[in-house]
Amino acid sequence: MTAHEGERAMVIAGAGHVGGRAALALREFGWQGRIVMIGAESHLPYERPPLSKQLLTGEREALHCQLRPAEAWQTERVEHVIAQVEAIEPDTRVVRLKDGRRIQYEALLLATGGHARRLSIPGADLDGVCTLRTLDDAACIARRLVADARVLIVGGGFIGLEVAASARKRGCEVCVVEGAARLLGRAVPAVLAERVQQLHERNGVTVRLGVAPLAIERAADRLLAISLSDGNTMTADVVIVGIGIEPADELARDAGLAVNRGIVVHAGLETSAPCIFAAGDVAIHPSRFSGLPIRQETWQNAENQARVAARNMLGGDAVSDEAPWFWSDQYDHQLQVAGEPALGERSVRRLLADTGSIDFHFDAGGRLVGASGFGPASVIAKDMKLARMLVERGLSPAAELLGDATIKLKALL
Ligand SMILES: Cc1cc2nc3c(=O)[nH]c(=O)nc-3n(C[C@H](O)[C@H](O)[C@H](O)COP(=O)(O)OP(=O)(O)OC[C@H]3O[C@@H](n4cnc5c(N)ncnc54)[C@H](O)[C@@H]3O)c2cc1C
């Protein structure tokens, strides 16, 4: 081991969105020593939103998903180690890699994201049954989305529906099965979920609610035969499973850190062990609205928490308390959700032109806890930006004012 390798380092487990952004932020905030970013994927850090959208439609290439060009990591002296972190040893402040290497840390960030959940039914591991989390997954799915291919999507959440829209753009025949009685789960109010369903149906997607796959078999001509819970059988060339993620919290759990379907962190993103932080999809933190633990799986959260974690790894006292926000692009439409609409007890709708709307959600005490916009991106973008600011600033204008499209949202800020 050289003297350089023996130096204590800022170590990041997971070279994804949070890992990459945090490494760059550590330099930006003045850390002069080593930064070691360890990732199991063979790629430099990249952004995942295009994986279910432009990467599948062919409108973007993998290289253009990178967080920063390859040279930037050298310029910033970030050591990118391609390896699996096998264990952490909080007592000796050591990270152990699968290949046997041990790296000592000054502070450690767990930015391990999540693993795509798989079906636990017979045939779930057949060739042609895919999940989507990584660039490699996206490349594999993109190869299968050829014109007229029959695509079965299991799960009517964001990833499943974005893939459905991309597959239609590629000329595939698409069916979405969702076990629940509605699309998009609790993150999106039911009224919006219905409109999203109608959008997909108008674009030629078959949506079957309350239906789950029971078994998958290899049929003739490389087709897959899927038995469904409603008694029907379907055939498909490819099955894409979008049923959520499992937070990759195993390193923390094995090391005895507090874990509760995600790594438990305080508002400053410290875990229950000294000098170990967690951020991004894997971290479960107190909600700014309810104080209850929430775990966010969003691009914006990755951006925000990476910087908070970096500050605090260097001894700062930053807090992660931004209101949640995410978007989803499907066809020419965009869905945006700010805050936590699930906490809402009542809502009011503001209509935007003929095609868009924003629903504002209030809790039992009349506090604005969320806003969800839906419509063509060009129609909702401007007002949704203002709606997001209202939620972010904790303002609660009267429902009548928010619902009245003749009153400018800017005037309510
Ligand atoms: C297909 C797709 C589309 C999305 N679209 C949107 C969108 O439209 N809008 C939006 O707001 N959000 C979107 N998201 C969510 C957003 O991309 C994630 O919230 C963000 O990537 C989370 O960043 P992260 O760093 O926490 O996790 P990741 O980016 O997943 O990075 C985690 C990394 O850690 C590595 N790792 C895990 N365990 C280990 C280990 N033991 N050793 C070494 N490395 C390890 C993994 O291999 C991975 O590279 C999308 C996500 C996906 C998958």
How would you describe the overall organization of this protein?
With 413 residues, this protein is an alpha/beta fold. The chain has three domains: 3-115 and 246-313, 3-Layer(bba) Sandwich (FAD/NAD(P)-binding domain), CATH 3.50.50; 118-243, FAD/NAD(P)-binding domain, CATH 3.50.50; 332-412, Enolase-like, domain 1, CATH 3.30.390. 25% of the residues lie in helices and 30% in strands. The strands form six sheets. Strands 1, 2, 3, 4, 5, 6 and 18 form a seven-stranded mixed beta sheet that branches. A five-stranded parallel beta sheet has the order 8-15-9-10-11, with helices on one face. A hairpin with a 3-residue loop joins strand 23 and strand 24. Helix 2 (17-28) crosses helix 9. Flavin-adenine dinucleotide (FAD) binds next to helix 2, strand 2, helix 9 and strand 21.
Mean pLDDT: 96
Domain module tally: 3
Count of DSSP-assigned helices: 11
Helix proportion: 10-25%
CATH architectural type of the largest domain: 3-Layer(bba) Sandwich
In one word, what is the shape? globular
Rg over C-alpha atoms, rounded to the nearest angstrom: 22 Å
CATH fold type of the largest domain = FAD/NAD(P)-binding domain
Instruction: Report how far apart the termini are.
Output: 58 Å
CATH class of the largest domain: Alpha Beta
Computed structural class: alpha/beta
CATH superfamily of the largest domain, by name, is FAD/NAD(P)-binding domain
Q: Beta-strand percentage?
A: 25-35%
Tell how many strands the DSSP assignment holds.
25
GO molecular function: oxidoreductase activity, acting on NAD(P)H
Keywords: FAD, Flavoprotein, Oxidoreductase
Domain FAD/NAD(P)-binding: 10-306
Cofactor: FAD
